[in-house]
């Protein structure tokens, strides 16, 4: 049922990635280097600092790709509805919920593959092959598991909206809006510490911010441990909080990675319920 028929939509998945790389080259990289130089009172951040900064970028690339690939992976649902293929499937005896499940599974697979490819390419380009060999088996299992979970969550979050669309034009507008805004609302184009307190609280309620923090904690751990070795815990926490590697609750207390995981699990439940509701809505309209 699913093929890469809309290659334009697939290519659109990488536009936000290109925007992030451009902004990284323009000022995000220099901003991080300045922060690290100030922390260590030196004009050089060394290999560990450079690697840490590059993995911060790669974490952002992964989160942006998750959102855009999930939406564009579901484009075939709208195409089939507009072309009348969904009606043909139902005439052939295919249950509507089976079609919806097929679209979801296909989109999750595509999102995972696209996200994984983005991570591998980003690591090789910005860090080198050594960046792929510096992780333990535990870290790799955490990374792959998080990618699978995040791919499912991204598709479930997008599906209720896409399922209600009845034209390719509305889908194109929705896809463009999300692709443009995802980096801003997820605290990727601008570090969380650069936002006002009210905006930070709003952004911290979004699942993509928590996904980004978890990816950063996994990918940046080896280089960050090396860079901040011998420095105070306060210096590392200040850096982590400013760049969204660690998050805080509404009371300003730093939350654990386990708390972020539970928060994402709650979002998964909510997204699943919304998908079921959108399915029943689409059957009546």
Automatic annotation (TrEMBL):
Establish whether keyword Membrane is in the entry.
Answer: yes
Against InterPro entries, the record matches this protein to: Nod_factor_ABC_transporter
Q: Which UniProt keywords apply?
A: Membrane, Transmembrane, Transmembrane helix
Task: List all membrane-crossing ranges.
Answer: 9-27, 55-78, 99-127, 139-159, 171-192, 262-281
> Looking at the keywords, is Transmembrane helix present?
yes
Name used for this protein in its record? Uncharacterized protein
Q: Which organism is it from?
A: Weissella halotolerans DSM 20190
């Amino acid at each position: 049922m699913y093929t890469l028929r809309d290659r334009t939509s697939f290519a659109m998945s990488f536009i936000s990635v290109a925007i992030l790389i451009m902004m990284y080259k323009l000022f995000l990289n220099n901003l991080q280097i300045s922060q690290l130089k100030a922390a260590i009172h030196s004009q050089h951040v060394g290999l560990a600092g450079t690697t840490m900064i590059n993995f911060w970028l790669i974490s952002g690339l992964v989160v942006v790709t998750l959102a855009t690939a999930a939406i564009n992976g579901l484009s075939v649902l709208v195409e089939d509805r507009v072309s009348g293929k969904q009606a043909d499937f139902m005439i052939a005896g295919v249950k509507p919920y089976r079609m919806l499940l097929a679209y979801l599974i296909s989109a999750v697979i595509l999102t995972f593959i696209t996200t994984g490819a983005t991570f591998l390419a980003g690591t090789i380009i910005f860090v080198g092959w050594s960046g792929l060999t510096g992780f333990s088996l535990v870290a790799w299992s955490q990374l792959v598991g998080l990618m699978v979970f995040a791919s499912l969550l991204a598709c479930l979050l997008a599906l209720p909206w896409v399922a209600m669309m009845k034209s390719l034009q509305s889908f194109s507008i929705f896809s463009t809006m999300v692709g443009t805004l995802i980096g801003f609302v997820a605290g990727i184009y601008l570090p969380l510490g650069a936002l006002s307190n009210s905006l930070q609280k709003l952004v911290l309620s979004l699942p993509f911010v928590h996904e980004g923090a978890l990816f950063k904690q996994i990918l940046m751990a080896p280089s960050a441990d090396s860079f901040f070795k011998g420095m105070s815990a306060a210096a590392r926490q200040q850096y982590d909080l400013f760049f969204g590697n660690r998050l805080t609750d509404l009371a300003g207390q730093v939350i654990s990675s386990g708390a972020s995981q539970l928060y994402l699990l709650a979002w998964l439940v909510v997204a699943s319920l919304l998908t079921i509701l959108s399915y029943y809505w689409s059957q009546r309209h």
